[in-house]
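Researcher: Quick one. two chains, 428 residues in total.
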Amino acid sequence: MATPWPMQKRLQNELLHLQRDPPVGISVNPNSASSTLTLWSVNVVGAPGSLYAGEHFQLQFTFGKRYPFESPEVIFIGGNIPVHPHVYSNGHICLSILTEDWSPALSVQAVCLSIVSMLSSCTEKKRPPDNTFYVKTCSKSPKKTKWWYHDDKV
Amino acid sequence: MEENQIQSDALGGTDQEIEELTGMARDEAIIAQQERIQNEIKENNPLVSQTYPINVLCEEYLDDPVYKAKIDDLSMQYSHIRKTRGDGNCFFRAFGFAYLERLLTDKKELSRFKAAAEISKDQLVSLGFPSFTITDFHETFMEVIQQVEKQPVLDELVDTFRDQGISDYIVVYLRLLTSGQLQKEAEFYKNFIEGERTVKEFCRREVEPMARESDHIHIIALTSALGVGVRVVYLDRGDGGKVIPHDFPEGCSPQVILLYRPGHYDVLYPLKGS
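Model:
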């Protein structure tokens, strides 16, 4: 009944869907996805009218075998890491759906939309107050951080 | 703030050891401890157990007269219990198992339920759930119902529910149905949600993620989504010396009976002839 890699079937579906019918400001380069689909990069553009309007960002998704039961690891990569109170300068993102509020019904697309919306609601471009300390001491994977989600609205 | 070196020997340490750490080392230690506790639970408990006589519960409450008296009371009406793993999904897993077990011998209810389950995906899509994420869960859910139809064998059902790769799909789909019902009847359910949260936020945080524990509101929503009555028998430290049953919805003739102990649900089986 269950295939050995149900995660690949699911990711295949998601990739197809995102290529065919991408939401505004989000695009995936299918060549960027590794052959086993465990690593993707997705391009995101800041929404019009937001502080990040027209800026291009790149998100890297890493999927484990337990996806979609476990959340993907998602970080900003490349030359432009958004300056935002929930984004560390090493690309790590403090967003509850990436760890404890993750649900198997969420998707790459849902994560990208949440991140764009997180950027859109920002009123002042600044780094998290503990950026220096965090970046110096954090683990390579943001999933190893026990995040405190103080304020969803920023 | 002081800088900390990673103290790998402290990973998965005791509460006190964790207290003494800060920053990232502390985070990793907490996460490692949580994983270790989860692994211990996994090793010692199958997702659904065999059935045990009710008095097996006494072993968990030695020297506890309140629970002893209530377990005696429970055994007046119920003969057996089937335990589920305490992984935060126990309500959905216990409910799913007990209901499908009933369908093994109730063809009429099975065909009603199969038809309702078949169209449930489209109903979720119409509520805004993306088809491409819920398809896999719906497909597996339907495959399990078909298995019950074609091969109504209890041992097969137990194996299915012990296979995490299938069992968790069933749990997810039941969570989605619960979330769908809450959102469909949001006007009604919003009255039962504490704090400032909307029904949608509540679903996103307390219903759809795995391992979030179930409250009355989850039970009411799921039972009305499926049209399946549930009796929950409460075994706790409350006064009175008797276990207290509560039917969802009130006045139904329950098709599933669950035992609730604070934080956990198991399946109950009535005494034959009662």
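The radius of gyration of chain B is 21 Å.
Researcher: Thanks, that's what I needed.
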